[in-house]
Amino acid sequence: MIDALYVGATGMAAQQGGLEAVANNLANMNTPAYKRSQAVFEDLVYRESARQTPAQGETAGAAYVGLGTRLSAVEKVFSQGDLRPSESEFDVALNGEGFVAVSNPDGSQLYSRLGSLRVGEDGLLQLRSGQPLEPAITLPRDARGLRVAEDGQVSVLTEDGKTLDVGRIELAMFNNPAGLKPVGEGLYQATEQSGTAQIGPAGEEGRGKLAHKYLEGSNVKMADELVSMMLAQRAFEANSRIIQAADEMQSIVNNLRRG
């Protein structure tokens, strides 16, 4: 049995998974606060294919052959995206590290890099997708203007022109942000790999600051993704050639005739 047939197949499968990550990055290049995905590969087990008989005075040697590769993980890269000015007072970007905790309808807690906010029917400040911020921030019915300071302090203007502080947006930090599980709509779920959330004020202990009337762009770089796409394509092609070469070698062996 020629292992190269199966080794090449594992390489093709792994590169296909890597290409899918690149495709998703390019598709979300203009999605606010999107974080690019990075494919992580690892080699499979090794087997001892042959052991040479040592000559006198030499040590025994062995040949270990790898059995291919696999896509072990697709991790998020939480580098900062570019900040883009916005005309909406409900647009808030995060400049630096951290996440904002939000409440999911099922009672669980999710985390976001902010973006476009809105006011719900109950007056709660929430994401566009409907999840209210935690801790909850309630805006009065007569609120006219929304202001968000760098430290997360949220204030509004009332009908009589007075400024009213209504709450503070706090940020969550994780020991391993790459371990967060993406669940869609720019939301992430804590896992054992990410560790528990460490909540605190913006701008303290390494947490980022808030930028009012800004949106964070994605951290996808088109040139980098196109290079990754070409590398995945070439690697896929090379592995397919390995399968073709191994098949031709096996065919030659099968066609041998005794003289």
Topology:
Blueprint: H1 3-27, E1 37-43, E2 46-52, E3 61-66, E4 69-76, E5 83-85, E6 91-95, E7 100-103, E8 109-112, E9 114-119, E10 125-127, E11 145-148, E12 153-157, E13 163-168, E14 170-173, E15 181-184, E16 187-189, E17 198-201, E18 209-212, E19 214-216, H2 222-254
Helix pairs in contact: 1-2
Describe this structure in words.
This protein has 259 residues and is of the alpha+beta class. The chain contains two helices and 19 strands. It has helices spanning 3-27, 222-254; strands at residues 37-43, 46-52, 61-66, 69-76, 83-85, 91-95, 100-103, 109-112, 114-119, 125-127, 145-148, 153-157, 163-168, 170-173, 181-184, 187-189, 198-201, 209-212, 214-216. The protein has a four-stranded antiparallel beta sheet with strand order 10-9-6-18, with no helix packed on it. Strands 7-8-16-15 form a four-stranded antiparallel beta sheet, with no helix packed on it. Helix 1 (3-27) packs antiparallel against helix 2 (222-254). It is elongated.
Which descriptors would you attach to this protein?
4-stranded antiparallel beta sheet, alpha+beta, single chain
Through-space gap between termini: 24 Å
Main sheet overview: 4 strands, antiparallel
Mean pLDDT: 91
Helix content: 10-25%
The strand count comes to 19
Strand content: 25-35%
Instruction: Catalogue the unreliable spans.
Output: none
Number of helices: 2
Return the structural class.
alpha+beta
Order of helices and strands: HEEEEEEEEEEEEEEEEEEEH
Rg computed from alpha carbons, rounded to a whole number of angstroms: 27 Å
Report the principal-axis shape.
elongated
User: In which order are the strands of the major sheet placed?
Assistant: 10-9-6-18
